[in-house]
Amino acid sequence: MGFLSEPEPERGVLLSVIEDRVWRIVAPNPGPMTYHGTNTHLIMTREGLAVLDPGPASEAHVEAVRRAAPAPIRLILLSHTHPDHVGGVGGLKAATGAPVAAYHTPLISTFSTFRPDVPLDDGAEIAGLRALHTPGHAADHLCFADDQGVLFSADHVMAWSTSVVSPPGGDMAAYLASLRRLAQRGEDRLYLPGHGPPLPEPQAFVGELIAHREAREREIEAALAAGPAGVGELAARLYAKVEPALRRAAERNVLAHLLKLEGEGRAIRRGELWQAA
Ligand SMILES: [Zn+2]
To answer: How far is the CA of 190 from the centre of ligand 1 (A)?
Structure first.
């Protein structure tokens, strides 16, 4: 995979992404899953300034977004309801009064009272952006596309890393279907992900991501053909070089592949062990 990296960005300040139209502020939550931190994007839309993903529950970050905003914040958009994206939504909404638009059935709703003010379905148009339901990383994941070839790909496609697909909120079959959907779109020239740097020439990269997952799936099937195995054992074998901090994520990815194979009648679970169907 041809991943991209970037130096640690300056914190708490507006970084220009597309001149006079798109900016980001990188949240203070760096980590093995979040890279330098969550990208909070500020987008000048035809209906005023929108904030995509307020980021983690950090008062300092919400305050930085509010202060740095080049115009009044009229709308808050959520790509999905993982804590590193939605944590700041209450604070930003309270400070600005802006309505929150998100997928109509938020993943987080099973353990919180969060409901979007503007529930979005696949294909909905909001402030000149098109919402694309792209489940896989999270069941409620939306990408937002503008009409100038920019797609806010959030955590579905990131230039710096593959995405974690962790069941039950994550779903490998859905993730691959969502990748194929993006691969078929010819109009996107630039992705702006939820973590890390922008991604030019996104279609080729999405093709690589699909090939990467298909290769992983073949490896898992080959391992199962050699005999029953548990998730931890498969992850240790397949992700031999993974850092300890990412081992759990690797196991979640393997489980996601196994559940996809099970759903397709290609693998069977017996207690803790998985075997070929
Ligand atoms: Zn994230």
So the answer is: 19
CA of 227 to the centre of ligand 1 (A): 36
What pLDDT was estimated at residue 110?
60
Coil/strand/helix, residue 93: helix
Distance CA 234, CA 150 (A): 38
Is the torsion defined by CA of 260, 108, 64, 149 positive or negative?
Answer: positive
15-70 pLDDT, tens digit per residue, is 999 999 999 999 999 999 999 999 999 999 999 999 999 999 999 999 999 999 99
Q: Report the candidate in 85, 83, 79 with the shortest Cα–Cα distance to residue 101.
A: 79
Residues 206 and 230 in one domain: no
**Ligand 1 centroid to residue 257 C-alpha, Å:** 21
Q: Report how far ligand 1's centroid is from the alpha carbon of 252 (Å).
A: 16
Q: What is the pLDDT of residues 41-54, one digit of tens each?
A: 999 999 999 999 99
Are both 205 and 234 inside the same structural domain? no
94 within a domain of the structure (yes/no): yes
* Domain enclosing residue 135, as ranges: 15-211
pTM of the model: 0.95
pLDDT at 109: 66
- Hey, what's the torsion of the CAs at 198, 30, 182, 118, to 10 degrees? -110
Percent pLDDT > 70 in the chain is 99
Cα dist. 63→68, 91, 95, 237 in Å?
Answer: 8, 9, 9, 45
Q: Is the peptide bond before 168 cis (omega within 30 degrees of 0)?
A: yes
